[in-house]
Amino acid sequence: MAFYSPINGVVTQLGVREGAQVSPGMNLFNLVDLSSVWVTAEITEAQAGWIANGQLTEVRFPALPGRVFKGSVDYVYPELMAETRTLKARIVLDNPRLELKPQMYATVTITSGTKRDALLIPSEALIRTGTRSAVIVAEGEGHFRPADVTVGDETDGKVEIRSGLQEHQQVVASGQFLIDSEANLRGALGRLTPPENESPAGAMSGERSGDEHPAPSMKSMEGMSIKKEPSAGDAKTTPEKRR
């Protein structure tokens, strides 16, 4: 007796052999149609708000170097995965040549469609204390000061600054923790020890807060200018100021 499948596909699992007995409800084989495949992408929690059905995607596979497969977001799962704090999105790709195989790894770029301008700094320039975010701003002539900032999206080694900085300001990209530590130390010493030939009261009125001070002698410090950068609103890359 011949049985015919209602769809074309590839048998991925065969549970019986010729002459074997079968019973109702028994799974005889699995048939998969690979002419169209699903790619499951995991989106970080910080980027979850960008993702929506219908967004265009580009998918690259290590097994197929140089190839780019275009598709779209077909379904966004309703909750984050507790273990990884990521959101799953399902992407549909056409696979007419059956090049894409189940269980392949892939890198996904999702175009969010949102465009705006953003100030960007290197992620390593940001100081996070748990309750606030700050950067060290170069004031010129060897002076620096900490500045509180409000951060936005972060990816690809860059972080968006939504408030607290202006375009073309200089920020310290490395060694800022040493500057911040010296600022705190100088401020503490200034409060405890009055300057020579000056009364304690005079020391209090002329005290320097330590927020602005000459740079310590460090060759490891590097400055970086803040600038606006355009972006196509790519969910995988940094949301670099969308216009």
Task: Break the fold down into its secondary structure elements and pairings.
Elements: E1 10-14, E2 29-32, E3 36-44, E4 56-60, E5 69-81, E6 86-94, E7 107-110, E8 118-122, E9 127-128, E10 133-140, E11 143-148, E12 150-155, E13 158-163, E14 170-174, H1 176-192, H2 200-205, E15 213-214, E16 222-225, E17 227-229
Antiparallel strand pairs: 1-2, 3-6, 4-5, 4-7, 5-6, 8-13, 8-17, 9-10, 10-11, 10-14, 11-15, 12-13, 14-16
Number of helices: 2
Domain module tally: 2
Main sheet attributes: strand count, strand direction, barrel closure? 6 strands, antiparallel
Straight-line distance between termini = 65 Å
Classified by CATH, the class of the largest domain is Mainly Beta
Structural class: mainly beta
What would the principal axes of the Cα set say about the shape? elongated
CATH architecture of the largest domain: Beta Barrel
